[in-house]
Amino acid sequence: MARQSKVVASFAEAVAGIEDGATIGFGGFAMPGVPFNLMRALQEQGAKRLTCVANTTGGAAQPRMPDIGHLVERGMVAKVICAFTAATRASDELPFTKYYERGEVEAELVPQGTLAERLRAAGAGIPAFYTPTAVGTELAEGRETRMFGGREYLLEAALPLDYAFIRAHRADTSGNLRFRRSQRNFNPVMAMAARVTIVEVENAIEPAGSFDPDDVHLAGIFVHRMVVIPPAPDGIWPQMREPRK
Amino acid sequence: MSGLNRQQMADAVARRFQDGWIVNLGVGIPTMCSNTAITADIIYHSENGVIGYGPLAEPGHEDMHLVNAGGQHVTLKPEAAVVHHADSFAIIRSGKIDVTVMGAYEVACNGDFANWKVAGALGGGIGGAMDLAASAKRVFIILEHTQRNGAPRLLTRCALPVTARGVVKLVATNLGLFEPAGEGFNLLEIAPGVSVDEIRAATGAPVLVPADLKTIAV
What we know:
The complex is a heterodimer of chains A (about 240) and B (about 220).
Chain A: H1 11-14, E1 23-26, H2 36-45, E2 50-53, H3 68-73, E3 77-82, H4 97-101, E4 106-109, H5 112-124, E5 128-131, E6 145-148, E7 151-157, E8 161-168, E9 170-171, E10 177-178, H6 187-193, E11 194-201, E12 225-228
Parallel strand pairs in A: 1-2, 1-8, 2-3, 3-4, 8-11, 11-12
Antiparallel strand pairs in A: 5-7, 6-7, 9-10
Helix pairs in contact in A: 5-6
Chain B: H1 6-14, E1 22-25, E2 43-44, E3 50-56, E4 74-82, H2 85-93, E5 99-102, E6 106-108, E7 113-114, H3 129-135, E8 139-142, E9 154-155, E10 168-172, E11 176-180, E12 185-190, H4 196-201, E13 207-208, E14 214-215
Parallel strand pairs in B: 1-2, 1-5, 5-8, 6-9, 8-10, 12-13, 12-14
Antiparallel strand pairs in B: 3-4, 6-7, 10-11, 11-12
């Protein structure tokens, strides 16, 4: 019996069935590798009480692209877990911020490397780990630390995901992925941490065997649904940010 | 009393880099440490996994798949490599970054600094700062010497929530180069046209001045 195809025809089909209360990781860093099309489709899908995991809630730069802030604005989000719950520049305000300040959404602020390692641990069957990051800061108050070799480390738990939304440059029918340049970022660790990984792909899906196995960045066993991004305006493609003043 | 401009502050820090160092530059003024002829033989590391990036891309030649941690479109040197985020922070946590250069709101003479949360804010922007500060071999800070209202940013103890404790090795401001020394800041070099009295008046901690004080070359 042949395996079921991982390729789906639309973004709506790709995000179908996501349950209320799901934990979803969104890959990407700045522009590259962000699953903008899947994030837009999720707005329409409308699942509620989501926990959203990403580097940032987004929305400080122009033009504004689909981001977690849009999901918050639609009342879909219960909690975010991010390395930024405020903008990099204190003078900028994220769209998310006013909902956070009104208590309508919860936030867990996590150092970026701890976020990546919590995801990596989840994908690696490691329930928790110790890191030197954030020791002695407000983030460590009241939490378990332990000395190793005379240095203090903070205990951090793995962060498993129900779904990972990621964007890749190329894919074959078995789900083997390749990323281009800094598009890789969080995407492989998000995929490995997730029960279901959904990928938007920038090029036509290629036959299995198109990549040398040595050149695969993420093995197809971590990939469950793929959808090809159509040309603009139907598909969302990265654009140049407007220059900052 | 204005002292150094932003590029001159960055240059004063970049002159401390050594050939072959792996360097991580934070957003803002630290980014300017790479835009100078001073730092030819440096491997720049970016949190998003780009190792060995070069100058900013020329307008019209930006690669939409390639940015540094500040979201700037950079170029790659021939030696460049790309890793995923967990490996990028494995590089950081395992102590392979020779120096991280960051901006800050406050820095204290005990080596603490604060750069992720402003007074009264609910949220914060940590990014990779806590990982870098905890595990880089050296932490260098670049910041304006005072707030806009003249209040000092160089203090005995940080008032804002800290990013890491006891880690800062060098502080560059528009007025000079400083070294946290426990009970005060050692003034290593002074900006041209600035007096020690002006620095003392603008600093919230004791300033220790060597007999042979050097002036920063600009």
